[in-house]
């Protein structure tokens, strides 16, 4: 699953380290399907540009735990 997510982010030119900024973290529940749900969530949040929505700067996957 990690490889698919990294491939997606590389295709979007979105693998840039960011430091020194305040962040919000969204923890996702356990997925019942395959990793496609998580990739869709990353894609949806990644393309939203709105003053009231934080910019997606990264993700973390550890076993069944997923965070944006």
UniProtKB/TrEMBL annotation:
GO terms for molecular function: protein serine/threonine kinase activity. Residues 21-65 form the Serine-threonine/tyrosine-protein kinase catalytic domain. The keyword Secreted does not apply. It is found in: Membrane. Keywords: Glycoprotein, Kinase, Membrane, Serine/threonine-protein kinase, Signal, Transferase, Transmembrane, Transmembrane helix. InterPro entries: Kinase-like_dom_sf (IPR011009), LRK10/LRL21-25-like (IPR045874), Ser-Thr/Tyr_kinase_cat_dom (IPR001245). It is a single-pass type I membrane protein. This is Serine-threonine/tyrosine-protein kinase catalytic domain-containing protein. It comes from Gossypium davidsonii (Davidson's cotton).
